[in-house]
Amino acid sequence: AAGVIQSPRHLIKEKRETATLKCYPIPRHDTVYWYQQGPGQDPQFLISFYEKMQSDKGSIPDRFSAQQFSDYHSELNMSSLELGDSALYFCASSPRTSGGASTDTQYFGPGTRLTVL
Amino acid sequence: AQSVAQPEDQVNVAEGNPLTVKCTYSVSGNPYLFWYVQYPNRGLQFLLKYITGDNLVKGSYGFEAEFNKSQTSFHLKKPSALVSDSALYFCAVRDPFSGGYNKLIFGAGTRLAVHP
């Protein structure tokens, strides 16, 4: 079965550089979520999109922005990178069910490991 | 505020023995509860979820979890552990009544080590 695709899988950047992470949801999934997992930590919710509109926002720094495109893929743009941004960034997707978004299962991609030097 | 607690950093089990990974939650309304497993250098894999109905939920790879409202717990169980079950397990909760209904709140994770 098709899974969530994230690219790149690994990314190394210098401080103050920018980075763009891409996420391709499972076919027919219309909701995308972004999470950040620091070393030895649990995943923290950043932001989500439903039908190309931002649906929820978590602890996402102002230096980060994201969007969902007409083909439902999403991009997370990160500027003025800091050492503390080094983490594993997960994208997840879910289908819209009749029960509403709260009951939907989020299916995670393999993650992008960002290292800021 | 909604939260999830996994009281054990690590659980050690002998292969073939039953395993339990504990999870307790705190939400304002009826919780939606999830278990995920993370293998090294891999993403989070969905195991099972509780939304409503039967308190015993069966999931992937022979795992099951029991929802206990009075104890606010959602412990993950498996009757007979395999060495290949060794991984990091996350409990997560969604509280649709406290706003921000899209996000999953994760516990700190429990590392399961199954010994031959």
Give the gist of this structure.
Chain A has 117 residues and is mainly β.
Radius of gyration of chain B: 14 Å
Discrete helix count of chain A: 0
Structural class of chain A: mainly beta
What form of chain B results from the Cα inertia axes? globular
Strand content of chain B: over 45%
Shape, per Cα inertia axes of chain A = globular
- Poorly predicted regions of chain B are none
E-strand count of chain B? 12
Helix content of chain B: under 10%
The biggest sheet of chain B amounts to: 6 strands, mixed
Secondary-structure-based class of chain B equals: mainly beta
The radius of gyration of chain A is 14 Å
String of helices and strands of chain A: EEEEEEEEEEE
The helix content of chain A, as a percent range, equals under 10%
Largest pleated sheet of chain A: 7 strands, mixed
Global mean pLDDT of chain A: 91
Low-confidence stretches of chain A: none
State the largest interface. Answer: A-B, 29 and 23 residues
Beta-sheet strand percentage of chain A? over 45%
Kindly describe this structure.
The complex is a heterodimer of chains A (117) and B (116). Chain A is mainly beta and 117 residues long. Chain A is 0% helix and 49% strand. In chain A, strands 2, 4, 5, 6, 9, 10 and 11 form a 7-stranded mixed β-sheet that branches. A 4-stranded antiparallel β-sheet of chain A has the order 1-3-8-7, with no helix packed on it. In chain A, a hairpin with a 5-residue loop joins strand 7 (64-68) and strand 8 (74-78). By secondary structure, chain B is mainly beta. In chain B, 0% of the residues lie in helices and 50% in strands. Chain B contains no helices and 12 strands. In chain B, strands 2, 5, 6, 10, 11 and 12 form a 6-stranded mixed β-sheet that branches. Chain B has a 4-stranded antiparallel β-sheet with strand order 3-9-8-7, with no helix packed on it. In chain B, strands 1-4 form a two-stranded antiparallel sheet. The termini of chain B are far apart. The model of chain B has no long low-confidence stretch (mean pLDDT 91). The A-B interface holds A 4, 31, 33, 35, 41-45, 48, 50, 55-58, 90, 92, 99-103, 105-111 and B 32, 34, 36, 42-46, 49, 51, 90, 94, 96, 100-109.
